[in-house]
Amino acid sequence: MKKISYGHQWIDRDDIREVVKALKSDWLTQGPRIRDFEKALCRRTGARYAVAVSSGTAALHIACLAAGIEKNDEVITSPVTFVASSNCILYCGAKPVFADIQEDTVNIDPKEIGRKINKKTKAIIPVHFAGHPCDLVEIHKIAGKYGLIVIEDACHALGAEYKVNGRWLKIGSCKHSDMTVFSFHPVKSITTGEGGAVTTNNKKLYERLLVFRNHGISRDVSRFIGPWYYEMQHLGFNYRITDIQCALGISQLRKLKTFIGHRREAARLYNDLLCGIEEAELPVERDGYRSAWHLYPVRIKKAQNRKMVFENLHKNKIGVQVHYIPVHLQPYYRKSFGYKRGDYPVSERYYERAITLPIHFQMKTAEIKYVTGIFKKLIR
Ligand SMILES: *Cc1c(COP(=O)(O)O)cnc(C)c1O
Question: Does residue 191 have its Cβ closer than 6 Å to ligand 1?
């Protein structure tokens, strides 16, 4: 039997055909497929603008730059996330400040955000952990009150939705934020190999994102001086994505609904097979939310057993993972900012018991039954 990995891409013949077409075209990069992919992202999310880049990390970085985050600023994010959510703050020379999580969703707790705001606070980066949207309405309210920018890290959450006043809103629509960031790494909702994007409804931010993607160069000044002219006003990067990748992205986006539907069914099956088990706590989906189910993170009641359970699952070819070691406990963060164990107790308690069971488009019912069968025996 092949090892069941915690996440995996799904590439079909249509994807391959689109990529081959791009390879045979005149454009390998900076061609028409980038705009087409961005337009498709706008259609899928409901946002006015999208800027596709070389990775989710690059997308987070240019979003922070577009937001004007710089030295002496503070930015609030969740401790339970991939380090990239917080590293983008460091890239801008600002200080990452964490706010502890809600016990049930593992998402940043709006009440904790309120306690971390001071005069230096510039932005909030809520992370939709495992694909479950944060309480964006509340976060938006807090941001409005203090004049903060909201950048959603939706790297887990392309395809997720949340309900406001009886209406379902798509993550990425930026109805309650300034920008939303996505990743198209192979384990995420859709893939372009490496890749990412930022969506926004704000034209000024959109224009800044374009500039930071391309060395900080803007060309719209050429009309003043001459057609050859370009100007570098900011320090940007080469974070461009290729047409080859966007060909794959366009084709993958067509399958997004199917992908998310399958993940939701896999999650439901896990819930059914594991419900009523005393030794584990299952991930929740709050009323009014539709998770993208990027992950299926379970909490083992007996934290001391986690290592044994983890090792034995791998011995049985089940590629479980732990998402995530709280960022503030990483040595770099401890050294740079003096963060220590005990600073974010809810996050730390979550981490000690967390184990992510495999969930992705290729997973079959029999595999989920196999995983839960072994998992149940191990946690006893
Ligand atoms: C994957 C991920 C990123 C980074 O995306 P890359 O495309 O790998 O650079 C950032 N934040 C979160 C929460 C992620 O899961």
Answer: no
